[in-house]
Amino acid sequence: MRRLLSFFVLGALLLLGKRSLLEPRAELRTLQVDVKASASTAELERAIDEAILIEQAIAAGGALVDPLVREQLLSSMRDRSDCTQSEDDAALLAQALALGLHRADQVTRQRLVFQAEQLLMAGSTQSTESERELRDYLTAHASRYALEPRYSFVQITLSSRRGVAGVADAERLLDQLRREQTSEAEAVRLGDPTLLPHVWSSASASALDGRFGAGFSRALAELPEGSWSGPIASAYGLHLIQLRARTGRALPALGTVRARVLSDYRHDLRRELLRERLRMLRRQYHIDLRRRRA
Amino acid sequence: MSLSSAADAAVRCKSYLPERQPFFGDLHVHTALSLDANLQGTRLRPADAYRFARGERVDLPPYDESGKATRSIALARPLDFVAVSDHAEFLGLVTTCLTPGLPGYDASTCERYRAMPEAAFFALNTGLAAPQGSAKYLPPCDAENAYCGSAAVSAWNEIKEAAQGAQDATDACSFSSFIAYEWSASPGTKNLHRNVIFRGTEVPALPFTYFDGNQEEQLWSSLEQSCLQQAGCQVLTIPHNSNLSAGLMFETVDRDGKPFDRAYAERRRRFEPLVEIFQHKGSSECLPEMGADELCSYELSPYDTLSTTTLGGAPDKLVASDFVRDALARGLQLQETLGANPFAYGIVASTDSHVGTPGAVEERTFSGHGGAGASARLARPGLVDSPWFNPGGLAGLWAEENSRAALFDAMRRREAFGTSGPRIVLRMFGGFDLPADLCSAPDFAQQGYAHGVPMGGELRPKGGEQGGARDAGGGAEEEHVAAIAPRFAIWALRDPGTEGAPSVPLQRIQVIKGWVEDSQTRYAVYDVAGQDQGADVDLTTCEPRGQGADELCTVWTDPKFDASQHAFYYARVLENPSCRWQTRACLAAHVNCEEPREGFEACCDRSLPPTQQERAWSSPIFYGPG
Questions:
Q1: CB neighbours of residue B207 within 10 Å
Q2: ipTM given for this complex
Q3: Directed axis angle between helix B262-271 and helix B324-338, to 10°?
Q4: What are phi and psi of A11, to 5 degrees?
């Protein structure tokens, strides 16, 4: 909370002069919010937030600044039968806002919401996170940063060119490898030439699936370590595998992922700042909720 | 300007492979920081683009009534590397005029811009199309407002921080990001764009824009001063969309109209080891008349400038000099006359995504481009993009490990290839002493490096062979050529596919040769492995039919090799036919051409090819007589 307050101060400093979005008002403003009758609580909350953000964006001049919003509103006005062609753009724009057209058009709404969100999140990047906070964040989001399983192995390829005979060939070769003491160099020569490396060192599951095809790493995970086993299939044929080592999913040390954690931490902080500022803005409004039937 | 150098520290990757391995990525990506993407509804920022590249699902416009995105997308396979390359020219402008409190916001010029935003948008794009020599910053980001420097710095900091945040600095080396931007020169809407890619975290304080310097030479001068002469900074520039340059990209005079000299050629070659041969706005490989090569019509856009892609007015005839194959050949001519080749390009491909989705090349899930072509911001019926455009391609790099240093070095030495989307693995070596049976060897790569050069490399004559006119005919000549000619070993693996998207088998490998003979550029296309076995596509289901190969390998010798002639050789690998994206979209929408539907007119346009042959291109191996 203390950090949010400091962000608030910094953010407020950025929202200068005549258009401070968070200036307390003497009187509550009434804001009409239309939702469908069946709207869930989450949809209702979202609709209220959007309505507030749109009002804030309009107050900050968003309809004038954003060429997309301006184009949409002017186009809507000119299509109206009561539009006088001689009216200039400024007048038409004012009429469009007075008619509430900015709330009706989906593209316009989203542009204004985005503008207001950016303004409310401004100033949130000047922060000094502690190592403790970042470590806690890393731990709390472990699934995002956990390292993939990794495998070190030797593989012998039996090319798909062998056709249906490949399975029997693989079984014969596997039997031979298990019976004989074959060096790695000799073993790889027993298979077919391949562009795929024979020796893989600490390759991630996703990298292996990317090279061999979907499901390869899943099959690899089932194999025992030390001995020759298989065959497992790939997009290129069959493979006999000598699995040498594997590592499971592990959380890296903060130092190795610090930049990524910091980026994500600040991203979440900005979103929290936005939520906090929206809560503050809500106190300035009386919400007139209208549920419409489909 | 120096960021944390953690990502530059020499950490050996666990999966380091001295004989090198292929990595796939995208070096051309735009986010909400690019003005054109921003105005098309793109909201994804650089950090979001990197998250997508690493496998996370992201939302895409348009949005429904409740404000939720109507679309989302995720890669089936994460990429290995990405460079977010937002347009440099307007990084500060939008931020300045939309953010109260920033220097320039209250300036009279910015207030006038807020009063006339349509004029501002038009003026901005017109600014990029200003002739070289007169393009300059437009208000409110002119000298009066210090060129919106503080806002531009803010945007540039975001780009750098996002790249740093995405970089895997551990020895897992799962992902590499490059700090980058796009220099967006478009005089008369003739495309001269270049992506500027930095090797590490030492980068200039600000990107150099078209408004800072209108000529490529000025871009290079700026990079020499702000990067190459600074400790730890390395950079290269990658031109793209030469197909839309209306003859400008590969002119053989500099921007002052002076013919190239050796110094210019060497300088250009230092900065530009690669060219982006394929992307969303079409292929820049070749025209069919270059070697009687009908396969050059693949994704051949009918347009010749950026404006014609949106306003129409395609020319009657495309300019041959806009295409990479022609540039490669003319580069050989310049090698002969100047002693240096300014167009000795290696090959990559990219998406040029403007919705912040690097590597989203799958035809099945193509979600539109967000910049050129159809807008992505509006909910509207029909195809997601202009049917003349495509989802884009990928860059492939052969490197020891997935680190910035190793990948950048691969770009520098041109050990690179491009694909039209699929993750076809393509490897090529050339050498006089390559074994003829190299495809049967268990150590293909090791022998390739030991006895030859990889793709992107340069060959010199073996021994004292001089070549030249051959009087002996028939078998004697063939034997002579075979004895003196280098061999080219080429191996290709089909894309292994994913669970939701099985890949298409390979059809064949070709070698494209270009050379100079009697001062004329010449081309030949050879089928060197595999063959067309008649595979096709069921257009009612898009199911591929017919036989193909999971992998192809060959060792090939040029039957017309002449040791006295400069030449280049690059490999092109073709898949069997598959449905093009618009065919899939039309099928999914159950379009009936007897009952036309709005937005799906292209489904019934017989001039559009319903199928395609996805492909990969290697970087050339260059031969010179010494």
A1: 26
A2: 0.87
A3: 140
A4: -65, -40
Distance to chain A for B22, nearest Cα, Å: 9
How far apart, in whole angstroms, are the C-alpha atoms of residue A219 and residue A214? 10
The span from the CA of B308 to the CA of B261, in Å, is 33
Q: Alpha-carbon distance B307 to B312, whole Å?
A: 7
B281: left (phi over 0), alpha (psi -120 to 50) or beta: alpha
**Quick one: which H or E segment has residue B617?**
strand B615-618
Please give the Cα distance from B211 to B152 (Å, whole number). Answer: 13
Cβ atoms of B397 and B22 within 8 Å: the answer is yes
B569: left (phi over 0), alpha (psi -120 to 50) or beta: beta
Across A232-244, average pLDDT: 97
In this complex, the residue of A66, A106, A256 whose CB is nearest that of residue B117 is A66
Give the number of C-alpha atoms closer than 13 A to the C-alpha of residue B18, restricted to the C-beta side: 5
Structure tokens, B294 = 């009908």
Q: Read off the pLDDT band of A106 (50, 70, 90).
A: low
CB contact under 8 A, B169 and A257: yes
Helix axes B262-271, B216-223, angle to 10 degrees: 70
Residue A155 CB: number of other CB atoms within 10 A?
Answer: 26
- Report the amino acid identity of residue A193: P
Closest alpha carbon within chain B to A157: B442
The pTM of this model reads 0.83
User: With contacts defined as CB-CB under 8 Å, which chain A residues touch B423?
Assistant: 210
Q: A89 CA to chain B: closest CA distance, Å?
A: 9
- What is residue A172's three-state secondary structure? helix
- Tracing tokens 């809407």 back to the chain, one arrives at B189
CA distance B419 to B24: 9
The per-residue pLDDT for range A7-33, each reduced to its tens digit, is 333 333 333 323 445 555 567 888 888
Give the separation between CA B372 and CA B389, rounded to whole angstroms: 9
Tens of pLDDT, residues B385-427: 888 899 999 999 999 999 999 999 999 999 999 999 999 999 9
Closest CA to B490 of B526, B461, B524: B526
Q: Determine the Cα–Cα distance for residues B390 and B6; give it in Å rounded to an integer.
A: 38
Count CA within 13 A, CB hemisphere, residue A37: 3
C-alpha span between B523 and B73 (Å, rounded):
42
- Neighbouring C-alpha atoms within 13 Å toward the C-beta of A265: 25
Question: What average pLDDT does range A33-39 have in this prediction?
Answer: 84
- 3 state SS for B185-211: CCHHHCCCCEEEEECCCECCCCCCCCC
Give yes or no for a contact between B198 and B227, defined as CB atoms under 8 angstroms apart: yes
Query: What length is written for chain A?
Result: 294
Whole-angstrom distance, CA of residue B504 vs CA of residue B550: 9
Q: Scanning the structure block, which residue is given the tokens 């010494």?
A: B626
Q: Which of B63, B444, B499 sits opposite A193 (nearest CB)?
A: B444
Rounded to whole angstroms, the Cα distance separating A27 from A284 reads: 8
Nearest to A54 by CA among A142, A147, A120, A3: A120
Interface test with A, best of B23, B419, B493, B551 (most A CBs within 10 A): B551
> Residue B473: CB partners within 8 Å, gap ≥ 6?
none
Burial B429-448 (b: 16+ CB within 10 A, else e): bbbbebbeebbeebbbbebb
Length of chain B: 626
- List, in sequence order, the alpha helices (H) in chain A: 2-14, 41-59, 62-65, 67-78, 89-99, 101-104, 106-121, 131-140, 142-145, 165-179, 184-190, 205-212, 216-221, 254-282
